[in-house]
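Budget justification note: compute hours in this period were largely spent on complex prediction jobs such as the one shown. Inputs:
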Amino acid sequence: MQNWWKSAVVYQVYIRSFADANGDGAGDLNGLRSKLPYLSSLGVDAIWITPWYPSPMADGGYDVADFRDIEPAYGTLSDADALIAEAHERDLKVIIDIVPNHTSSEHPWFKALLSGDPAARKKFVVRTGSGPRGESPPNDWTSAFGGPAWSQLPTGEWYLHLYAPEQPDLNWDNPEVRAEFEDILRFWFDRGIDGFRIDVAHGLIKHPDLPDAGPRPDDWRTQPHPARDQDGVHEIYRAWRKIAQSYSPERIFVAEAVVPTNNRLARYLRPDELHTAFQFDFTRAPWRAEALRNVIDDALIQADIVEAPATWVLASHDIPRPVTRYARTQPSFDVQPEWDRARWAAEQPDHVTGRRRARAAALLQLALPGTAYIYQGDELGLEEVEDLPADSRQDPTWQQSGYTDVGRDGCRVPLPWSGTSPPFGFSPGEEQPWLPQPAHWGDLTAAAQQADAASCLQLYRSAVGLRKALLPPATPLQWVTGIPKDVVAFARDGFQCWVNAGRNPVRLPYGWKVVLGSIPDIDVVLPPDSAAWLTRKA
Ligand code: NOJ
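Corresponding output:
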């Protein structure tokens, strides 16, 4: 039997926004547990739950104050145990986030540092500043959220934070840090989780001299940087792999490793390192056939080299929703070195087109060989909520940009489950969710879509089910050739997927019949911005 993680459909749960059982307006573990039947009926194989640890929420939970407990607003350790057990009864694997690059400034280690403990100081990256009196940061590194990556301690020294000042970077050259995280992995593996998604997997080791990065690279995701993708990080993952392996070959790691090229990513996927890693290229590709084909080719070539599955990521809690990305003519999020978000946002989104393309993209994603990641709410066709009131926004990118970058709250708005007005069944009572939901989401609730055979939810459900029935994991992909250039089409052993990203209708091939269309009534012709799955006519 092939390892489950080589062909899984993984559903990402942003826990704070998924489902609220205790009525405080934020999602929680019991809310998630109550929705496991929904996830089972969607047919997914695994859930990845974003950080559920105690956190002051300076970065939506990616600022962890205690890696061995559950955020009280989300529940308790026994709620987590019950959730894991019930997920397993339903044949759902459970992946949780691990955040090893940094802690919260409320973590006991950082508090000990602040109270002058010299051993704690060695667990973080602390340096004297530059300038005659050390009054400037030690180097020119900038935080991913804007501003310098260094903040000053009361002693006058500086500590590093690649993200918010409330997220001090750990010093992974310190063996105590390594031992602590190995123990944390065991703590959760012992509780039965099936894997970890490693946050900022590329960032743990910094260049020993902490040299300047130089003029801000055009695109920090694609340029080398002394705080990213350093060779020393691989030794850490070799040790982690041994730990996972000591439980079972089915306990896994998924890396969020943002590195300049797929070749660099392959280094994280050597047989004695991590099992799989996100490939984010779809999230950056515009809705153009050539761009989509390139993403697929690049990912598959890499998957061949490393023998790790290709991963197809359309969205996450960090990226504007596909419906809205595809609703603009401007290339999507992050596509260009100097991506001009203001210009992108200035264009009025055409959500009718965006929704239609997002449905086609779902059929594309789910027909590809490898692992598919669905971000919660994309199965409902939710759009990015772009008009959140300023005083409700919580993402640190919003604050640290001086309130110019709208940040990532728009894809984190709590899910609409039922009913016709907010909170749309997200909370049991009338408590409004921590981010306000658009009034028109009554049409998009899971309950409304459940009752509509043509809904986005039913499309996802059919696609996930048919994928299992029609696409044995090991069947390779072959491009269909001799077709219009605006079409992406490939075959997998008696199956074809066609996506029309152009403006003209396209005739589907003779001898094949449509088993699933991204819109109703696709027959011999594939309309623009739609997709179809085909099998051979008997
Ligand atoms: C990546 C996570 O996905 C993002 O939400 C977070 O802000 C950063 N890592 C920092 O932990």
